[in-house]
Amino acid sequence: MSVVFFAIAAILVISGGIGVVAARNIVYAALSLLVAMVGTAGVFLIGLAEFLALVQLLIYGGAVVIVILFSLMLTKIQDFEFLTANKQWPIALIVAIFLLGLLGISILVEGSATTTMGSTNISELGLSLFSDWAIPFELASLVLLIALIGAVVVVRRDNGEDK
Amino acid sequence: MNMPEIVGLFFKASLLLFFILMVVLILTLAERKALARIQQRKGPNRVGFKGILQPFADALKLLTKEDILPASANKQIFWIAPLAVFLPGFLIWVTIPLAKEVVLANLDMGLFYITAISVLSVMGLLMAGWGSANKWAMIGGLRAAGQLISYEIPFIMAILAIGILAQSFNLKEIVDDQARWPFAIKQPLGLFIFLTAGLAELGRTPFDIHHAESEVVGGPFVEYSGAHWSVFYLAEYMNTFTIAVLTVLLFLGGWQSPVLPFSGIVQTVASLSWFLIKTALVIWVIFWIRGTYPRVRIDQLMSFGWKILVPASFINIFLTASVLYYALPHWVITVVSLGFLGVTFYFIKKGSLAGHKQNTVTIINSSDIRAQLSNRAEV
């Protein structure tokens, strides 16, 4: 049964990811990002990581995508006609290859599914988050800050051209 | 999970949907009757006995009305948007218990699940606004997003304080924890923040700037008609019911009652009715607020949210956490938060908070006008 759910979630993630890159309309791209994020939450849920799945929905599905959409809807669609002809593609390629390599190596070294899956206890989770992992936890909040600044930058550039 | 279990869950979910649809139908009539009473009118009284069948007539009318798609609208996004508003609101109900055993799935992270899912409904409003290709809808959608994002913070923080106090995110355990004292007594500040932010999340009348008829004509819903519009309407009333139910669960002790000397099925029914009576009272307060207060302006809404509600919610959480950490008696929270509420209201009344000095409207007493007029007559 979980194979079926995993297949659905994986299709959501992959089709959403392709949509983000391939969509000509930038609002479609942002909505595809939402689909990919919800699919990722589904994958976490199948791995019995409910807390992570909900955080995924709350932070990425709720905050990040909404902030991105909010600013995109304030821009003119004509400004993004050549969305796919972006000058930043070499950087994106390097990051993608690096991430792929990192994930591949970690799977090769650790092997697949070595950890035992079990439901998380929320109080234990909270204790370890705020004691052993306090600094990484606080660093994660930078994600939101970056999303916010990025959204503002997209809108501001639009204003600059008008002047 | 095997086939009969899935069929059973599907059946329960349909039952839940039916229950919520019935509640929504009753709520539409109740709201119109309540507002009519406040405004000294009779309200709907033609269809059925005292207008009791009015909601069914309305539903029939809405379902048979033509669905119009504006020519320049974005078809897919326009049609998906009502569902994107309704679905998160309905998914919340998976974990909301109505009585001790009446729940679809009692999740350990129930409260966290509710906050995470409820955030997603903003997306539907934004999609409706953008997809309609209408300037009013667009402005309404952006207003909705701005309002909902701002008021989400105090809403979630008030919920978090409850989680800290009950030491659990499980709704059933939270209700069990209130067997002696409901959290409304321990968390008066939390209750105030939760209800205010909850009303803003709903976009009900004091806070309905995103579909204010006199400003943005109808906001994100302006181009919708017929069945698709009724889905938005359904979602709004369902969310009103959800907020009322959550208020009862988190602050008013849920199905806990002073004396219910029954056992077995009778007890379940009795506690369910007790719970619904409490919910009805909260809903009446929500209608009452709608009938009493005029709509706030958008800058007042934003400054109230960010300058008063957000700091107040942080103070509430800090207070609750420190009282629990230093093992002080719980009434300390009550006293300090009541004091804080009093001070805040005093300053709001005085007008030195929330930018009251920028008011464009000045209130003149009728006696002043009369005095001025009589002065002029004398000159």
Annotation keywords:
heterodimer; A: 163 residues; mainly alpha; Four Helix Bundle (Hemerythrin (Met), subunit A); 6 helices; globular; B: 379 residues; 2 domains
Q: Which secondary structure elements does this structure contain, and how are they paired or packed?
A:
The complex is a heterodimer of chains A (163) and B (379).
Chain A: H1 2-22, H2 26-46, H3 50-74, H4 89-110, H5 122-130, H6 134-162
Helix pairs in contact in A: 1-2, 2-3, 3-6
Chain B: H1 3-38, H2 54-64, H3 75-91, H4 110-118, H5 121-131, H6 135-166, H7 171-177, H8 183-186, H9 188-202, H10 213-216, H11 226-251, H12 264-292, H13 298-325, H14 331-350, H15 366-378
Helix pairs in contact in B: 1-2, 1-11, 1-12, 2-11, 3-5, 3-11, 5-6, 6-9, 6-13, 9-11, 9-13, 11-12, 13-14
Structure description:
The complex is a heterodimer of chains A (163) and B (379). With 163 residues, chain A is mostly helical. Chain A has one domain: NADH-ubiquinone/plastoquinone oxidoreductase chain 6, subunit NuoJ (Four Helix Bundle (Hemerythrin (Met), subunit A)), CATH 1.20.120.1200. Chain A has six helices and no strands. In chain A, helix 1 runs antiparallel to helix 2 and helix 3 runs parallel beside helix 6. The C terminus of chain A is likely disordered. With 379 residues, chain B is mainly alpha-helical. Chain B folds into two domains: 64 residues; 305 residues, no CATH class. Chain B contains 15 helices and no strands. In chain B, helix 6 packs antiparallel against helix 9 and helix 11 crosses helix 12. The longest helix of chain B has 36 residues. The radius of gyration of chain B is 23 Å and the shape is globular. The model of chain B has no long low-confidence stretch (mean pLDDT 84). Chains A and B meet through helix 2 and helix 3 of A and helix 4, helix 5 and helix 6 of B.
